[in-house]
C-alpha cells in the first residue's frame, strides 16, 4: 500500500461513515454501499493484515483506523488457525504497542475496536501460549503510565 492507496481508503471511509462524497479513480461518484463493498475486501484474506497495519500506522483518519481495526479483528477470527504461535503473539504485541503509543490520541470508537481485537486475540490464544494469559500484567503497565493510559 502506498500514500495514494491510503488516501483512497480514507476517502472511502469518509463516504461510508459520514456520507461525504467520494469519487473512484475514473471520476465516478461512489455510494455508501460501494464504499462498504470496497472496504470489506480488506477482510477477504489474511494477506491484507500488513495493509491494515499500514492504515493504522500511517492514516490520520479515525474512520480509516476503525475500518483497519475491525478488519484485523475479522481476519484474526477467520484465519486464526493459519497463523503460527509466534505470528499470533506478534500481532498481539503490535496491537498492545499501538494502544500504548497512540491510544490516548485516538477516538473512543477506535480504542474500543482495538480493545475488542486484543480481547479476541487473548481468547483465541489462551491455550496456545502463556504470553496470552499475561494480559493483566501488560495492562498493569498502562495503569503505571499517564492518566490517559489509565483511562484506556
Automatic annotation (TrEMBL):
Q: Which Gene3D superfamilies match?
A: Leucine-rich Repeat Variant
Q: Which residues form the signal peptide?
A: none
**InterPro entries for the chain:** ARM-like (IPR011989), ARM-type_fold (IPR016024), Importin-beta_N (IPR001494), XPO4/7-like (IPR044189)
Record GO terms (molecular function): nuclear export signal receptor activity; small GTPase binding
Q: Which SUPFAM superfamilies match?
A: ARM repeat
Q: Which GO terms describe its cellular component?
A: cytoplasm; nuclear pore
Tell where it localizes. Cytoplasm; Nucleus
Q: What PROSITE patterns is this protein classified in?
A: IMPORTIN_B_NT
Q: Output the GO biological process annotations, alphabetical, semicolon-separated.
A: protein export from nucleus
Q: Do the record's keywords include Transmembrane helix? A: no
Give UniProt keywords alphabetically: Cytoplasm, Nucleus, Protein transport, Transport
Importin N-terminal domain residues are: 35-101
Q: Which PANTHER family match?
A: EXPORTIN 4,7-RELATED, EXPORTIN-7 ISOFORM X1
Record-stated family: Belongs to the exportin family.
Q: What is this protein called?
A: Importin N-terminal domain-containing protein
Amino acid at each position: 500500500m502506498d500514500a495514494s492507496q491510503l488516501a483512497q481508503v480514507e476517502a472511502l471511509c469518509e463516504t461510508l461513515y459520514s456520507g461525504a462524497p467520494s469519487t473512484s479513480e475514473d471520476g465516478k461518484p461512489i455510494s455508501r454501499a460501494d464504499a462498504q463493498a470496497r472496504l470489506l475486501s480488506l477482510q477477504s484474506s489474511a494477506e491484507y493484515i500488513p495493509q491494515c497495519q499500514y492504515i493504522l500506522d500511517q492514516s490520520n483518519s479515525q474512520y480509516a483506523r476503525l475500518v483497519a481495526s475491525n478488519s484485523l479483528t475479522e481476519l484474526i477470527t477467520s484465519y486464526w488457525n493459519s497463523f503460527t504461535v509466534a505470528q499470533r503473539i506478534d500481532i498481539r504485541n503490535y496491537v498492545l504497542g499501538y494502544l500504548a503509543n497512540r491510544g490516548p490520541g485516538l477516538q473512543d470508537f477506535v480504542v474500543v475496536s482495538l480493545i475488542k481485537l486484543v480481547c479476541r486475540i487473548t481468547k483465541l490464544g489462551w491455550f496456545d501460549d502463556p504470553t496470552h494469559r499475561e494480559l493483566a500484567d501488560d495492562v498493569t503497565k498502562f495503569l503505571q503510565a499517564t492518566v490517559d493510559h489509565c483511562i484506556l
